[in-house]
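Archive entry. Fields below.
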Amino acid sequence: MSNQSLRVVGAPRNQAMSFLPFTWPRFFTHLFLIVGTVIMLYPALWMLSASFKPSDQIFSDPGLWPRTFTLDNYINGWNALDTSFGVFFLNSFIVCILVVIGNVFSCSLAAFAFARMRFTLRGFWFAVMLATIMLPGSILIVPQYVLFKSLGWLDTFLPLTAPKFLATDAFFIFLLVQFIRTIPTELDDSAKIDGCGPFQLYWRILMPLSLPALATTAIFSFITTWGDFFGPLIYLNDQSVYTVAVALRSFVDSTGTSDYGAVFAMGVLSLIPVFVIFLIFQRHLIEGIATSGLKG
Amino acid sequence: MTLEDLAPSPLYQRKQGRRSYRALKENLAAHVFLLPWFAGLLIFTVGPMIASLYYSFTRYDLLSPPQWIGLGNYVRMFTQDDRYLTALRVTFIYVFVSVPLKLTFALFLAVLLSKGLRAVGLYRAIYYVPSLLGGSVAIAILWKRIFGIDGIVNQALGLFGVTGLQSWISVPNTAMSTLVLLAIWQFGSPMLIFVAGLKQIPRELYDSAQVDGAGPVSRFLQITLPLLTPLIFFNLVLQMIGSFQVFTSALIVTNGGPADATLFYTLYLYQQGFGNYQMGYASAMAWVLMVIIMVFTAMTFLTSRFWVFYQDGRS
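PREDICTED_STRUCTURE:
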C-alpha cells in the first residue's frame, strides 16, 4: 500500500487501483466472496468453538459462540490416552525437525550439482530425478516396510526420517535447481577466480543466496511431515512413539463416539503448528505454491 | 587469467583439451554432491521398486519367505476379487467427479480474485486455509461429525424444516459425496496457481478486445481460458495423480464404507497389505495403480496438443 501511494503520480493503473470507486458489480463480488469465506471457514471455526463447549452442548447448540465456556475438553483430552498428548507433540516435532534438516541438507547438495556442475549423464540423471517425483508412494511401501522391519526400525522415527537425509523427496531438488538457475553465474565465476572450490562455492556463495528456496523447502517439509498419516500409521505401532496424527486417530477409535469435545480439542491443538507457520510465512507459502504447484 | 576462464558455457570450455583435468575434477566433485541422492535412489526407490515387482508375483505374508505364484495376484485381482473391482470403480468415480469440480471452483475463484478488488490478499489466504489443513486427521474426524446424524449439516437442514435425515456417512451415495466435498473444499492450491497465471496475462489483450467490442464472457472464453490452458493442464495432472492415491479421508471419514461405497484404491491396498498381510497382493495392486496413473497422465499429455496453448507457439 505504501508503495502505491508513492507511485500515484504518472501511474494511471495504480491510481485506479487505489481509489476503487463503488460499483454494483464490485459490491456483489465482495458479497459473494465474503459469503464464500464464511462457508470455507465455518467447519474449522465450528470445531474451534466445539472444543470449548461442554460435551452435552456440542451437538445440541449449533451456534459458533459457546454459551458455556470450558477448558475441560483440553484438560481431559491431553491425558485421555495412556501416553500424554505432550509426548505425541514432542514426537511430531522431533520427526518434523529431522525431516526439515535432512531435506534441506541432502536436496540442496543434489540441486547444486544439477544446477551448476557438468558431469557424466547429467541429463539422464535429471530425468530420473523428475520421474521419481511422479512415482506413487504405494509402490514403495511394502518393500520399504520389509526393509525397515529387517533393520529393526519399526516403532522408531528412523523410517520417517532417515530416507530424507538421502534426498528421497526429489520434489525439493527440483525446486532448488529451478531457484539456483536464476542466480547469475557471474558470482560463481568470480568466486572461482578467487580460488573457491565447488564445496566453498556451494556453502559460501550459493546456499546463502538460495535462502528463500531453502526456506520454502523447510516450510513445506514441516507442513507435509506434520500432517503425514500414512507413514506413522504403518511404522509406528507403539503408543509412546505415536505422532499427533496417529494419536488422534487412535483417540477417536478408543473413545468411540463418547467424548468428541476432547477429540476436537486435541484436533484444534494439532492444527495450530501448521496454522502458525502459515500466518508467519504466508507470503512465502503462497508464492511457493503459485510458482511450483507444491502441496497440490 | 584468460577469457576462457570466465566463460560459463560448457561448449566453450569443452573445446579446450587442456581443461580435461579440470573437467574430470568437476565430474568427480559432482558425484560427491550427488552421493546422498544416488544412495537414496538405490536404497529407497529403485531397490524397493524391483523388490515390489518381484513380490507382486509371489504370495508373501512377511512370516514365511515369498512364494512364487506367477501372475496369480494379477489374475485374482481382475477375475476373482469383487472388492478390488469395486475399489477400482469407486476410485475412478471419485477422481472423475472431484478433480473437475475442484479445478472449476479453483478457476472461478481465481478469476474473481484477479478483478483488482480490495483485500484480495486476505481472501486468497482464507480460501487457501482448507487446502492447508484439509488433509489432516483432525479435519477428517471433524468431517465425519459434520455429516453425522446429529452433525451441523443435518442441523442446518433442520432449520429449513428438513427432518428425519440419516447420517450422510451411512448411505453409499451420500458417503461418496461427503468425500468429494472434502476434496473440493481444498481447491486453494490450484486456485493460487491460477491466480499467479492470471497475473501473467497482459492487460493490453483485454483492452484491445474491449475496444473490439468483446463482452466479459467472450473475453473470458477467448483470452483468459486459452491462455490459462497450460496451467489447467498442470493442475489437472497434479490433482489426478493425487486423487488416485487418496487415503486419509477415506480411512477416517468412512473407512471404506458403507458397503464398500468408498473403498478407495489405496485404502484397499492398505487393508490387504497391512491388515491381512497379503504383501504380494498389495504389491501387485500398487503396480496396477502405477500403470493406471501413468496411462492417464500419458493420455492427458497426448491430448494436450489439442487443447493446451503455449504463447510461444509450440503446442
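CURATOR_NOTE: Chain B is about 75% helix and 0% strand.
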